[in-house]
TrEMBL record, chains A, B:
<dbReference type="InterPro" id="IPR018490">
    <property type="entry name" value="cNMP-bd_dom_sf"/>
</dbReference>
<dbReference type="InterPro" id="IPR000595">
    <property type="entry name" value="cNMP-bd_dom"/>
</dbReference>
<dbReference type="Pfam" id="PF00027">
    <property type="entry name" value="cNMP_binding"/>
</dbReference>
<dbReference type="InterPro" id="IPR036388">
    <property type="entry name" value="WH-like_DNA-bd_sf"/>
</dbReference>
<dbReference type="InterPro" id="IPR036390">
    <property type="entry name" value="WH_DNA-bd_sf"/>
</dbReference>
<dbReference type="InterPro" id="IPR012318">
    <property type="entry name" value="HTH_CRP"/>
</dbReference>
<dbReference type="Pfam" id="PF13545">
    <property type="entry name" value="HTH_Crp_2"/>
</dbReference>
<dbReference type="GO" id="GO:0005829">
    <property type="term" value="C:cytosol"/>
</dbReference>
<dbReference type="GO" id="GO:0003677">
    <property type="term" value="F:DNA binding"/>
</dbReference>
<keyword id="KW-0238">DNA-binding</keyword>
<feature type="domain" description="HTH crp-type">
    <location>
        <begin position="155"/>
        <end position="221"/>
    </location>
</feature>
<dbReference type="InterPro" id="IPR014710">
    <property type="entry name" value="RmlC-like_jellyroll"/>
</dbReference>
<dbReference type="GO" id="GO:0003700">
    <property type="term" value="F:DNA-binding transcription factor activity"/>
</dbReference>
<keyword id="KW-0805">Transcription regulation</keyword>
<keyword id="KW-0804">Transcription</keyword>
<protein>
    <submittedName>
        <fullName>CRP/FNR family transcriptional regulator</fullName>
    </submittedName>
</protein>
<dbReference type="InterPro" id="IPR050397">
    <property type="entry name" value="Env_Response_Regulators"/>
</dbReference>
């Protein structure tokens, strides 16, 4: 059995769902009864393409990474989900016009509140506020993905890597980044060797300092200038 | 003044809009009065990023190409719109969660029926069937774009070019394709030299025959095998 929501989880759910106040009392009661809190360890897969369809997830804590995966195992990160974010594609099976597959993993230890697919499907059929939230989410994620696409297509790799390191610094709140070259390659959809070569160039230019499993930003200003 | 719809245009509009029968009589009357038929010549731009926001367009005839454009002028085709297709992003300004820019051009002489932005915005606020159509369209286009993204990221260029030539053959209904190497480069988001080199390789392998402004498919079976 999955853990039922405690009082604080349910409070979080009420605040986190834009449509909560517009649900009928009976619908609110079903959320209370049927939602569950799930815990994931760093690296756990929450969703693997069309193999999974657990339901809508509200991130309670931690960080999720949404990415696509090629047949040969290459990855590229589409976007991240942080506390209060809603994960739509873990319920992808209920949207008939969505016919692509994403993978979702916990980038660090994470807790989510799950609205199971059956319940979420019913609510989105019955309640216009739920449908409206879904539509805003799809349009926002579409915009996120277009941003990644423009980066991949139109931006040179040195700019992309500089931008990625600066984003990581903002997310972590520190310029000491625990990242392997493999992890960066998976985020940016490229080969590890390409990442290593560019990081060595950044180091030779005095922008970063490299050590095992760690990249330290030492000249943020120059990285910013490079990222444009 | 733009030409008002004649009887046949209006018939086409009624059949082409999935939500038409669910509109109020007064809303139907406004469509009759306020929609216009617009004609474009091959190469005309219908929509240029955030500079334009004419409204929803229903393709009456011809073919539109929707693409993104980099600051340096590089392009990549996202999808095409044919007769009966609805063009959503020519009304992008009314969707607040859509914050990317696309360009739209007539790939051949085309006619569209335009529902002006002001009217379309009102209808989508007032009528749930209109909002529903918009949501299905956004999700479908999202899927189209993810397909392009996976191709660009994960597929080698020889496969992509083979697939592109086969798609063109299907669209044109002919293996004699009037395409310059520049046009293909813009579709696929690459440099002309890369296209030329690969086409010459295809020719040396007996899959295509090249002449000025023309590519002829001579071994469809091998192209299909290459495209996978």
């Amino acid at each position: 059995m999955v853990p039922i929501l405690d009082k604080e989880d349910f409070q979080f759910l009420q605040e986190g769902l834009p449509f909560y106040t517009q649900l009928e009392p009976a619908q609110q009661a079903r959320l209370r009864q049927e939602c569950a809190r799930l815990s994931y360890r760093q690296g756990d897969k929450l969703h693997r393409g069309s193999q999974d369809c657990a339901g809508l997830m509200l991130v309670r804590s931690g960080r999720l990474r949404v990415y696509i995966l090629s047949q040969s195992g290459r990855e590229i990160t589409l976007y991240r989900l942080l506390e209060w974010d809603i994960c739509l594609f873990s319920a992808a099976c209920i949207f008939r016009d969505i016919n692509f597959e994403v993978w979702i993993e916990a980038e660090r230890g994470s807790e989510v509140i799950l609205i199971p697919t059956a319940l979420f499907g019913e609510l989105s059929q019955q309640n216009i506020a739920v449908a409206d939230t879904v539509n805003h989410l799809i349009a926002s994620r579409f915009s996120d993905v277009m941003w990644v696409m423009e980066q991949v297509l139109f931006m040179s790799f040195d700019k992309r890597l500089a931008l990625f390191l600066l984003e990581q610094q903002a997310i972590e709140g520190s310029g000491q980044l625990e990242l392997t070259h493999d992890m960066i390659a998976n985020h940016l959809g490229t080969a590890r060797e390409v990442v290593t070569r560019m990081l060595k160039y950044f180091q030779s230019e005095g922008m970063v300092r490299l050590s095992r499993g760690m990249i330290e930003i030492v000249d943020e200003g120059r990285l910013r200038a490079l990222a444009g």
